[in-house]
Write a structure and sequence with these properties.
Strand order of the largest sheet: 8-11-12-14-15-16
Radius of gyration: 18 Å
Helix content: under 10%
Strand content: 35-45%
Shape: globular
Largest sheet: 6 strands, mixed
Structural class: mainly beta
Length: 240
C-alpha cells in the first residue's frame, strides 16, 4: 500500500479503513491496476462539477499539489478550508504514483479529521500545561499545518484537545508548543485514535520570524518532545 505522506503511518491508514464514519463517494470500479492512495488534504472548493483539494508534503515552501474530483463531499460536515483524509485513485491510470502529483482523481471515500488552530497563553491560563496521557503519537508538518495522530482513553469524546504555544517562550527562536489532552473518563473510557490538523499560519507569520518550534506531548514515559524547523523537518536539536 503506497503511503503518499512520508509521515502518514500504516497505523493512520488502518484508522481510516476501520472507521465506520468513512464516507463512500459513489460506486467503486474495483480496478485492480491502481492502488488506493490516502492523503490528508484541504478542501479548497466545491461545486456542481465536483471538488478541489490541495496538499503539501513538506514545509512552508514546499510545492502545493491540487487534486480535482467529479465527486463531492458533504459540506454540512466538511467546510471549505477544512482538512480531511481522502481515499482516491488518479483518473489517468498511466500517471506515476511514486511521488506526489496534481491531477484529476476518482474520490472513493473521505474521513473527517479534527481541525484546530494554534492558541497562545501561559501556564496559569492553561492549567499548568498539564495533560492526560496520549499513546502512539505521530506528528508531522505539511505546509502551515501541524498534523497529529494520537490515541487517548475517552468514554464519549475528549474534553480538551488543543495546541497551545507557551507565551513565556515567545522570545526564543524555537518556542515551546504543548498538545493538551483531557479525557472525559480515564477509568471507564476506551482507547480511541484521532487524526488532527492544526493551522499554524499565525505562528509562522509572526513578526518574530521563528525558526521552528518544540512540541511537547504527555505520554506513557512522562513527556515526549519533537522539534520542527520551518522546512517541516523534524530535528533532534534546534538548528542555530
Amino acid at each position: 500500500m503506497l503511503k503518499t505522506l512520508k509521515k502518514l503511518t500504516a497505523a493512520a491508514v488502518a484508522v481510516i479503513l476501520a472507521c465506520t464514519a468513512l464516507t463512500s463517494c459513489g460506486d467503486d470500479d474495483n480496478n485492480p491496476q491502481q492502488s488506493y492512495l490516502y492523503q490528508l488534504v484541504t478542501l479548497d472548493s466545491t461545486s456542481d462539477a465536483g471538488c478541489k483539494f490541495s496538499f503539501q508534503t513538506g514545509g512552508l515552501a514546499s510545492p502545493v499539489y491540487t487534486l480535482t474530483a467529479a465527486q463531492r463531499v458533504d459540506t454540512t460536515k466538511v467546510k471549505i478550508g477544512e482538512r480531511l483524509m481522502i481515499v482516491y485513485t488518479y483518473a489517468n491510470q498511466n500517471i506515476s504514483i511514486t511521488k506526489p502529483q496534481s491531477g484529476e482523481v476518482n474520490l472513493h471515500g473521505y474521513q473527517q479529521v479534527l481541525n484546530g488552530k494554534i492558541q497562545y497563553g501561559t501556564s496559569g491560563e492553561f492549567g499548568g500545561f498539564t495533560s492526560h496521557t496520549l499513546m502512539n503519537v505521530y506528528a508531522w508538518v505539511t505546509g502551515p499545518w501541524l498534523n497529529i495522530q494520537a490515541t487517548g482513553v475517552v468514554k464519549r469524546e475528549a474534553k480538551q484537545f488543543e495546541l497551545v504555544m507557551d507565551e513565556t517562550t515567545r522570545g526564543e527562536q524555537y518556542p515551546t508548543v504543548y498538545l493538551l489532552f483531557t479525557s472525559d473518563d480515564e477509568i471507564d473510557g476506551v482507547a480511541r485514535t484521532v487524526i488532527s490538523s492544526f493551522d499554524m499560519e499565525s505562528f509562522w507569520n509572526d513578526p518574530a520570524n521563528y525558526k521552528g518550534f518544540t512540541l511537547k506531548v504527555a505520554n506513557q514515559n512522562g513527556q515526549h518532545e519533537w522539534t520542527f524547523n520551518r522546512e517541516g523537518v523534524e530535528t533532534i536539536k534546534p538548528v542555530s
